[in-house]
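Troubleshooting entry. The earlier prediction with zinc ion gave an output that would not parse, so I re-checked the input for stray whitespace and re-submitted. Clean input:
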Amino acid sequence: MRDAAPQTIYLKDYTPFGYLIDSVELTFKLHPTKTRVLSKIAFRPNPEATDNRFFLHGEDLTLISAKIDGQDVTVRHVDGGLEADGPARAFIWEAEVEISPSTNTALEGLYMSNGMYCTQCEAEGFRKITYYPDRPDVMATFDVRIEGEEPILLSNGNPGAKGEGFAEWSDPWKKPAYLFALVAGDLINHPGSFTTQSGKDVELNIWVRPWDEHKCAFGMQALKDSMKWDEDVYGREYDLDIFNIVAVDDFNMGAMENKGLNIFNSSAVLASPETSTDANFKRIEAIIAHEYFHNWTGNRITCRDWFQLCLKEGLTVYRDQQFTADMRSGDVARIENVLALRARQFPEDQGPLSHPVRPEEFQEINNFYTATVYEKGAEVIGMLKTLVGDDAYANALDLYFERHDGDAATIEDWLKVFEDATGRDLTQFKLWYSQSGTPKVSVSEDWDAESGTFSLTFTQSTAPTPGQDVKDPKVIPIAIGLLSPEGEEIQATEIFEMTEATQTYQAKGLSVRPVPSILRGFSAPVILEQDIDNTRRAFLFAHDTDSFNRWEAGRDLARDALLDMIENDAAPSALYLDSLRKVFADDTLDPAYRAYLQAQPGESDLARTLAAKGVTPDPDKIHAASKAFKQAKADALKDLLRPIYEDNQIDGPFVPDAEGSGKRALANSVLSLITKLDGGTLAQSQFEAADNMTQKLAALSQLVTAGKGTDAITAFYDQWKEDRLVIDKWFSLQVALAGPDDAAKVATALTQHPDFDMKNPNRFRATLGALAGNHAGFHHKSGAGYKVLTDWLIKLDDLNPQTTARMCSAFQTWKNYDPDRQALIKAQLERILAKEGLSRDTSEMITRILG
Ligand code: PHE
Ligand code: ZN
């Protein structure tokens, strides 16, 4: 139900809640449609508050009774909750409410997924469970009693009494309500244990449905690795006797860090070699680490208000990226993080949804779990570490945990810790949190042979973004290395701290003009504009001693070659193909890295690049050029392909580690080129022989792309129809790989398949999200792609506003396209907005996208 007029909430309006809570006791009497929740909460006036209004949030609750100090009280139902006359002294609030988990399709609060009860409270879901000050700065200890028939009854903290039909849990650590969790169901556990650095034994469990038991081992190992890593690298030890993870099928996001009881989308924890790809394994490892790391960065130190979301998310993403880099190849991890940033965060920051890493206003906080808050938030921390150095970063983090343990903190607190630990003034650095948009950094070179001085003059600028017309120069750490004309490193990486709009870096006393390698390791989330020719790029592609920049040089060459094909009908660049041949032939390179060396920019990426140059992208042309380019690569590398494919086959069991997954990635990337030459013969035999999903799915993709997938699609379905997560892949692959004229039709047909279930976010995303990701299909000039997505978003909004709103971002780049397409999209956006009873979530998103 939408409020009459959506309200905007501002950071500047923050005031503390009028009361503190000493303890919370909750009793749940579970029932699918009539769950009773009894709460007993000890309040006392907050000495720091000026406003002592006793307001409790509550949504979709039926109030049965309310008492203060044992006496019935009259409450006033107001917008978003209730009010009562709160005494100006300590008192006990008791309430009983009734809720209906089985009809809760929004998957927020207490809901049911395949017959099991589970909760999702972040950001503001606890108010759908009981009346409560549902804000992160109100922290309390929770004692929970669950009464229900389900064999397994779980909540946060340590287990207490347990018996026939009930279980009690008690969480000794103060926490905000968004970290509350409850699970009840017919579950079995995959057990494990961990001994912490101080010698405490922790019981570990991954709870799943019986049929998923064989998919837990990898997640359990990832959990243990995460626990050990956080001790070794951050000195952070786990603080309860038990750590539970539960897999649920219906979940809006990836996973949730509830204290001691993490709840995961089953796609983010369950894995087996037969059913999961290497990419799945890697993602699962990262998400398990992410949620575990939240125990300190998020739970022990939480956010004062939701504007501070990046305090926990940016830092925790940064930590999980460090973990992945340590567990696997750091070079490849950096490339993957940057690819993800450019694919998800750059378009957001360069379009109508652009917002600061710490937003200053919102209508619906669920709409701000964005790539900007998460991924750019992580980049900002990486820059901070680069600027202060590794040791100072470690000291600052120690101080952060020491000073703020138990707090609900702010970005100001976070930066103050760095200022105190390093003596640095971070006033200008703070602009990274408040100023939105992706800075552009352009660079020009100068060489003075007489004095041997080489200069790089940098200029930074950021285009206006919604609500921010003027941008100030930021602090930008630019990592620079210098190479000799022979490709030897003559100056190792140095950090140039740019603080002005225009600033010059100099290297002196050089005997030859060096070749610079700039923004090594992608040292800042900016767009680097270098006016260099392709010979220089080819040189860097061959010689750069920074692995990231070496890959980047090849990528830039490939991109320019593609743009030339799209804009000028040029032939595929011989210089690029020649350079690629030389680099790709080098079998001393790490296979995973080598696979990335030949990957080409995707079609959406090319469309955005064109738009940024002021050229209107033509999706059909981009699609055709991308195919032709790939064919040209296959032709140019022809004789290398088969040997690389053979060399990277693995005998023996499937191991989803860096080495095995790297070889499979390289072999599969080569397979995609071979298919361009043999029309699918090798792909067919790989499809038939594969005993793991990584090879199976890659082969299936190639067959479908080559137009030979019909039988394989059927066979795949027959083999895997009982496995939801595999069938998600089956839905997604068909839509993602459909040709431009077919994508909307394929998606529509799949929505009529008996296995399509719009209530399941994974299945919905696998089908409609894949349509939005099929660039040429989604942007088909008929408008069919836009219409199909819109039809489904309108339907889903009634059931699940959060997932609907997130998927609206498919339209965020609409102004990049031609007037006809813009008109088609605008009509669909307006159709959504005109829908009766549109959710606040979706209404905010569409309004912002329309601009
Ligand atoms: N806090 C979760 C995470 O990043 C994400 C999440 C947000 C999950 C909101 C559910 C709802 O780890
Ligand atoms: Zn998180």
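This one parsed fine. The chain is about 40% helix and 20% strand.
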